[in-house]
């Protein structure tokens, strides 16, 4: 179980997060939504212990920031929004970095990495230097590294924590779905995945639970059908919108409207 208690983050004397409390169960894909500056990435950074905060962050009933780093490396993996590598590793070597905390033979490591390369359709990138990858290609490679770090290739893996900051921001449609499907599948094995997304419709398609942030606080919390409602979203996004059910799934789809001339803006 993952828990935040009264989490507060201040920058430049101004609150960015204010007494955020939440409890997350294993087996769920949680999506953080909200406008720019709402506190989504700040919340993720605090969970990564990358920034100072007040309050408590607990993982398996223990403070996350007191865990042994090597042990934590096998329990938590992070995909940051901006995380370039300036060394001439190739994609295979970058993914293999996720296996560093494990004691295994080179053949065992190679088998895990090859499996993830195939799963995420990275075969054509396997031998390319990461400094030569596009933003989307690098994003996919880093996501594969996260999967490698948490033993996601093993369907018996449980009770791990994956943190994803805008994992689909540079991806085309096909790879957006491939990445989010893999993240959702990993969560449903019995793990916890927390992802920052901007696309409301992708959140509706994949999230088990949505946390909608605004001005550093959680304004709405629940399954997509409870959060992705016009009366909830429109005051925060300040944009006219229509919401209808997906024709193939019983989930809401959001259609935004132009600011000029929109009947509901």
Overall description:
By secondary structure, the protein is α/β, with parallel strands linked by helices. The chain folds into two domains: 227 residues, 3-Layer(aba) Sandwich (Rossmann fold); 37 residues, no CATH class. The chain contains nine helices and twelve strands. It has a six-stranded mixed sheet with strand order 6-7-8-3-9-10, sandwiched between helices. A four-stranded antiparallel sheet has the order 2-1-4-5, covered by helices on one side. It has a two-stranded antiparallel sheet with strand order 11-12. Helix 6 links the parallel strand 7 and strand 8. Helix 4 packs across helix 5. The longest helix has 16 residues. The model has no long low-confidence stretch (mean pLDDT 93).
